[in-house]
Input
Amino acid sequence: MPKRSRLALIGSNGMLASMIRRVAPPQYKIAPFDLPGFDLTDQNQVLRTLDELRPEVIVNCAAYTDVDGCETREDVATRVNGEGVRYLAEAAQNVGATLMHISTDYVFDGANTEPYVEDDPTGPRSAYGRSKLAGEQALIKSELERFFLVRTSWLYGPGGKNWFIREMPG
Ligand SMILES: NC(=O)c1ccc[n+]([C@@H]2O[C@H](COP(=O)([O-])OP(=O)(O)OC[C@H]3O[C@@H](n4cnc5c(N)ncnc54)[C@H](OP(=O)(O)O)[C@@H]3O)[C@@H](O)[C@H]2O)c1
Output
């Protein structure tokens, strides 16, 4: 059997990560990390944990995603969504991993009448958007060579706080 790649899945209990765990191809050996055992805002823990695991790939699905809550807890949001990403970039650089990070259209001001493209100017209008932009900037400014920065606008799926899909019983 070919060697499996180690994939560190950060925020592994969340909606997107739960689906990644379900559908990830078998060549990836997933190591899940989430609160309370793993705290992305703890730089030492992030560096130590990933140094021990030495993953080939890190996928960051962890975030402070309570958009309204971010308005009153912007400091917490910035630590998770901003500084946490910097710690992951540093950890990925240390072990030579590729980092995939998920961001959001909230980094834009939403005023465009045309679809946004990658290099459109950002201009977040919410604390959530500012914290996610801080994460993007940390990643771009890092020395990490191999990373993917994915901006998505709306995720939905079973288990999440959304009104599109509900898991059918049985
Ligand atoms: N959902 C959407 O519609 C949407 C749209 C655009 C972009 N995104 C982005 O897509 C990504 C995945 O979103 P999602 O909806 O799957 O998120 P989610 O369901 O809220 O999952 C996020 C996970 O991160 C964990 N987490 C929070 N703080 C942490 C910390 N300090 N250390 C470690 N783990 C922590 C959460 O744990 P707790 O539950 O215990 O806090 C949760 O398990 C996020 O980056 C989000 O910003 C989402």
